[in-house]
Amino acid sequence: MKLTHQQKSYKKIEKSEIDLLCHNLSFEIEDILEYFGVEYYHKDNYLHGPCPVHGGDNPTAFTVYVDGDDMKGNWYCWTRQCEKEYQPTMLGLIRALMKHQKDRKISFSEAVRFAKKFVKSSKIQSQTSNSEKNRFISSYKNLAKKRKAALPQVTPKQVRDKLSIPAEY
Questions:
Q1: Which is higher by pLDDT, 163 or 114?
Q2: Other residues' Cβ atoms within 10 Å of the Cβ of residue 10
Q3: Segment 99-104 long-range contacts (CB within 8 Å, at least 24 positions apart)
Q4: I want to staple 73 with a disulfide (CB 3.0 to 4.6 A). Which of 2, 42, 48, 90 is the partner?
Q5: Gap between the Cα atoms of 7 and 163, Å rounded
């Protein structure tokens, strides 16, 4: 029995692989939104803006969490609940954004292929900037060391000697 081209390209994706991919994508949230031209604003531990999935105009309808243990990478549409159709994960968001961009239905495997390429290209970019990042970290550590050395050492005895009890008002 011969396999068709579509059957050859199909490979079952394990849940652990999907979880890892979503985890890696959660570090690229702003890059993903910029890639798809999504308008967003920073607020506390999330980004918000008009929902790019259904094309809304409410500036607080769309939320993507960029920080936190459980919520990082989750997204929500507070007006039409678009995340329920696509899943509230980064992979679901990519699938929704691709559908909106290409104006056609996007398969889950197509979204996974895009996400894998996106993560791979961002890793290449981050590897090239590692030396700059390391220089920044070392300069920060040097500044922190200098700051610690500049702090005056005040003993509890010195503090007690300066106190006047009862206080003069």
A1: 114
A2: 11
A3: 99/53, 100/36, 100/52, 100/53, 100/55, 101/36
A4: 90
A5: 83
> How far apart are the C-alpha atoms of 66 and 44, rounded to whole Å?
9
Cis-peptide into 166, omega within 30 deg = yes
- What is the 3-state composition of the chain as percent helix, strand, coil, each rounded to the nearest 5? 55, 10, 40
C-alpha separations of 107 from 91, 97, 110, 164 in Å: 11, 12, 5, 76
Please state the length of the chain: 169
Residues 50 and 62: beta-carbon distance below 8 Å: yes
- Report the C-alpha dihedral over residues 66, 100, 125, 13, rounded to 10 degrees: 80
Query: How big is the CA angle at 69 (ends 31 and 58), to the nearest 5 degrees?
Result: 55
Tokens of 66: 């960029």
Q: What is the pLDDT of residues 99-143, one digit of tens each?
A: 999 999 999 999 999 999 988 876 544 444 455 555 666 666 666
Six-digit token string for 133: 């990042």
pLDDT for residue 17 is more than 90: no
